[in-house]
Design a protein that fits this description.
4-stranded antiparallel β-sheet, alpha+beta, 32% helix
């Protein structure tokens, strides 16, 4: 489970970046995104990168994904979201503080997951309750 922090100019870019992570990065979001103070997010990213940021953010959000931090970093590198995405590992000092801030933070408005809740396609010809066809080809990037 990895913690993702996204910094951006406005909520539209945050929502677009989250959608890109789900659609193109194939990351499975576990928790609903929470609103994080932009100044805290900037200071956390500066401490992670050990350098000053060129631009400051106006809004920020954080959430957990199912994948581990290494796989999350690889998947984020493959896409080009419209906001600054940082995978925060538990090795960093600000991880615990960010996790505590998320407990009291408000939910990011406008977020809706596009992913299906089932594991595969539904066979409507079958009259039983369990009509989901499980396929090994779906989500084949995940090795569980």
């Amino acid at each position: 489970m990895a913690l993702i922090l996204i910094r951006g100019e406005n909520n539209t870019k945050l929502l677009s970046a989250i959608a890109d992570l789900e659609r193109h990065g194939n990351l499975n979001i576990i928790t609903r995104p929470r609103v994080i103070d932009a100044k805290f997010a900037d200071s956390l990213v500066e401490s992670i990168l050990n350098s000053t940021l060129r631009t400051k953010s106006n809004v920020a959000t954080a959430f957990f994904v199912e994948e581990d931090p290494t796989l999350s970093i690889i998947q984020v590198k493959k896409i080009h979201p419209p906001a600054h995405v940082v995978v925060v590992s538990d090795e960093y000092d600000g991880y615990a503080r960010l996790e505590n801030l998320m407990d009291d933070a408000a939910y990011l408005s406008g977020y809706h997951s596009h992913k299906a809740k089932n594991e595969g396609m539904i066979d409507y010809k079958i009259k039983a309750k369990d009509r989901v066809l499980k396929s090994e080809k779906l989500n084949s990037y995940l090795k569980k």
